[in-house]
Design a protein that fits this description.
With 80 residues, this protein is an alpha+beta fold. It has one domain: Ubiquitin-like (UB roll), CATH 3.10.20. 28% of the residues lie in helices and 29% in strands. The protein is built from 3 helices and 5 strands. The chain has a 5-stranded mixed sheet. Helix 2 packs antiparallel against helix 3. It is globular and about 25 Å long.
Length: 80
Amino acid sequence: MIKLLYFAALVDMLGSASEMLPAPLPSNVRALVALLKQRGGAWKTVFGQRSVRITVNKQFAELDTPLKDGDEVAFISAWV
C-alpha cells in the first residue's frame, strides 16, 4: 500500500486529506498521477495542472521517482 496525503486547497477540491492506495502499485510518480487523473472530475483537473508539488517520503520528487510498498506520497497545492 501507498499512503497518499493531500494538502492546502487540494483537500477542499478533492474532498479528502488522505487515503491508502492498495496494490497493484504504480511504478513511479508519473504512473500514480495518471492513475489519479483517471478518476475524472476534480481529479483530472487537479492532476492535469503543473501547480501541484509532490513529495515521496518527505522528499520533493520528480515524475520518474520510483514508488514501492510503504511509501508516503504527499501532494501540495502550489496555487497562490
